[in-house]
Amino acid sequence: MTKIIAPSILAADFSNLQSVCGLLNHSQAEWVHIDVMDGVFVPNISFGFPVLEAIKRHITKELDVHLMIQNPDKYIERFVSCGANTITFHLETTDNPLKTIELIRNCGARVGITINPNVPVAALRPIVRHVDMVLLMSVFAGFGGQKFMTETFDRIAQLQEIALQQNADFLIEIDGGIDTEIAKELFNVNVNVIVAGSSIFNSQNPQKTIKNMLEE
Ligand code: DX5
Ligand code: ZN
User: What is this structure's pTM?
Assistant: First the structure.
């Protein structure tokens, strides 16, 4: 089973991005999670293209871009040219999710779809066969450092049931409030990708925290 840690750069020291990249390059994290917020879909603004390009220059890992922006279609090409390997958008942010999926695919990136905790998992039924990854938010998108919502485990089971019914094959990613213990529990229920910001970057030894998350 695929088991990937994607540290969320949102919790890192922005005054020292080059050394953050160095630290991640020498860790067991396979992806780096990039949270893009527009102040419209979520009540927060993070960073955009110049920061993404700067990270790309120094990172050897894949960039997992999480778009928390209204009308993502407009910017997909640009995110891919800045180095995004995976682009995940919120179902709630586009009128035509299948069109957004096609746009991402045509640009050559892996396609992810995500929903906030208040959106029923069943809303993904018509979509899952078309994506490479489904991200279930375990906090409301917008801020790092929130508390993990335990209902997420039920939602994972519902998603896995839908995958089974449709014989669909996609990665499951979970994002928000995840510490080492929760990461292990999530891997145990066959989650593939764990996003973690605060628990990695606020720890004494981020590389060791990443390693611990991956241990059985
Ligand atoms: C929340 C973001 C998350 C966040 C995770 O809107 O999507 O990726 O950075 O950070 P922690 O692990 O601190 O909850
Ligand atoms: Zn995120």
Answer: 0.98
